[in-house]
Amino acid sequence: xxxxxxxxxxxxxxxxxxxxxxRLNYRYIDTGAMYRSVAWTAQQKGMSLADESxxxxxxxxxxxxxxxxxxxxxxxxxxxxxxxxxxxETVGRGAATxxxxxxxxxxxxxxxxxxxxxxxxVMDGRDIGTVVFPQADKKFFxxxxxEERGRRRYEELxxxxxxxxxxxxxxxxxxxxxxxxxxxxxxxxxxNDALEVDTTRLSIEEVTDHVFxxxxxx
Length: 218
Known about the structure:
alpha/beta; 8 strands; five-stranded parallel beta sheet
């Protein structure tokens, strides 16, 4: 069984996907972490993210593993636990760049399909229900106000970076939205058969319960 959860940055899709996967005893796959892994590796090597052939080569050769960790799941990149490092905002901006590249997406989408075809999964991202698994058993599309999504990201990151500015984060969220929705390759759009969930005024528990109940109505 494949559960697809798509949505923009800060909409709560990753947190809810983890919780739903835990309830169902399914495998959780954070596809965003895969693009972040490519960007992070390139940045570590001082490579230009605009070099599409080089980014595709990294994607092809990179060993990305999702394993149990302290927060429910850890991401190993070529054997190194990069879970915390991948959450860096610079890495996030880099991920937006490589995620718009055709060959990188082709490589990583193929990996995502292999995982989904071999396991019961809850997979979140921006094109799961439209491109990766258009035949997913259940599809959800999360939305939330940019201001609320920025506040969530601020609360998540401020302890590690006290100099963060809320207004700046909100503007970065809006810029990422624009990039995701207007890229030529796999833009962020709601699948016709996806259930839209506005998480702006809902708690994580409320959203998780709503998704779980809808899944059980299969």
